[in-house]
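Section 3.1: Structural characterization of target chains.
Under the original work plan, the team committed to producing a structural model for every single-chain target entering the pipeline before any wet-lab resources were allocated. The record below documents one such target. The sequence was received from the expression subgroup and is listed exactly as submitted; it comprises 138 residues.
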Amino acid sequence: MNDVLHRLYIDLEDDNISYCLLRRYNDRDGDVDLMFFERDIIKIESLLIHKYNGVKVCSKLYYPHIQYHLPFFKEDKLQYLIIDCVFDFIFGKNMKKINFSLKKSDFFNSLKKYDGKYLSPSKEYLTVFLAIHIFLEN
């Protein structure tokens, strides 16, 4: 694991910033995708810009997706660790948001029924509940 990324995970924990790893870091891409609660955006920005000398890169095309480019040296060569920050669920090719309700009745109403038995929930609900489970486990 990249040393900068390892320190970042420790700092996120120390600052009580909840996150969900969406895609692991690999040296080829030089980036990692993390999902955060939008309420923590000021703490995240302060950490990445002030402590890591990161540069914020926003794109209206991918809003609310924000990137921070964190400089570091590896073998005397300047490199950048790119932190892709996601603050909302995006689903599908056309980048539509997932609209869902956490009400128990709405969840059961979304289930498909066959012969009076409930089948699996929609992939939107599975995605959301998996992410919530990850946040609650941490």
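The chain has a mean pLDDT of 75.
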